[in-house]
Amino acid sequence: MPNDLIDGDPLIAQNFFLEIDGSVVTILASVSGLDIEMEVASTQQVGKDGKSQTIKTLAGRNKQGDLTLTRMAPPDATADKLWQWFHEIRSKGILQSDRTNNRKNGSIVLYDSTHVEVARFNFTNGWPSKIATDQLSVDSNDPVKENVTLTIESLERIK
Fold first, then answer.
1. Is the predicted pLDDT of residue 150 greater than 70, yes or no?
2. pTM attached to this predicted model
3. Greater confidence, 136 or 1?
4. Strand 117-133 relative to strand 104-111: parallel, antiparallel, unpaired?
5. Residues 34, 119: contact at Cβ < 8 Å?
6. pLDDT at residue 130 above 60?
7. How many CB atoms lie within 10 A of CB 32?
8. Which residue has the higher pLDDT, 135 or 146?
9. Nearest to 152 by CA among 62, 83, 81
10. Which of 37-51, 70-84, 110-124 has the lowest average pLDDT?
11. How far is CA 93 from the centre of its chain?
12. Closest CA to 127 of 78, 73, 70, 69
């Protein structure tokens, strides 16, 4: 009798991309921060004989951290969409009254080896708050990588 819990194949995390507003912006080497979490609210009361007791735990507010994207540094930052977006915010800021100007919705999309989409994490109101370039060394032949921090307001796995 087959086990229904392990009938399917696992996700393989090797083919994934960043989409912004429906179009692929960059190929990624790694992603961290795909955490979907709620705060836990605990209620405590003093019980018999004055002993503190945890009575219940409840779901609190949704928590959202940043996404950290690692990619190969582009040869020309002036032609790169992420760098253009970052410079736009860095030079002009984000208007308090305009929540759609520089904040964008996007997705981290995972594909299988046949290039079929198998998972999707959608984020809302994201913007690049930091781009960090790897340490450079004359002793290295490795490609230069960048870590891009996307500050986001919500994250949801929809597939």
1. yes
2. 0.79
3. 136
4. antiparallel
5. no
6. yes
7. 12
8. 146
9. 62
10. 37-51
11. 22
12. 69
Question: 45, 28 in Cβ contact below 8 A?
Answer: no
CB 140 within 8 A of CB 116: no
Average pLDDT for the chain: 85
**Contact assessment for residue 42 and residue 56, using Cβ atoms and an 8 Å cutoff:** yes
How high is the pLDDT of residue 86? 92
The pLDDT, as a whole number, for residue 136 is 85
Q: Which two tokens stand for residue 5?
A: 């819990």
In the structure, how many helices (H) and strands (E) does the chain have? 1, 10
Q: Which residue has the tokens 């290039």?
A: 115
Give the length of the chain.
159
SS3 137: coil
Q: At 148, is the secondary structure helix, strand, or coil?
A: strand
3-state per-residue secondary structure call for 18-61: EEECCEEEEECCEEECCCCEEEEEEEEEECHHHCEEEEEEEEEE
The contacts of residue 76 (CB under 8 Å, 6+ apart) are none
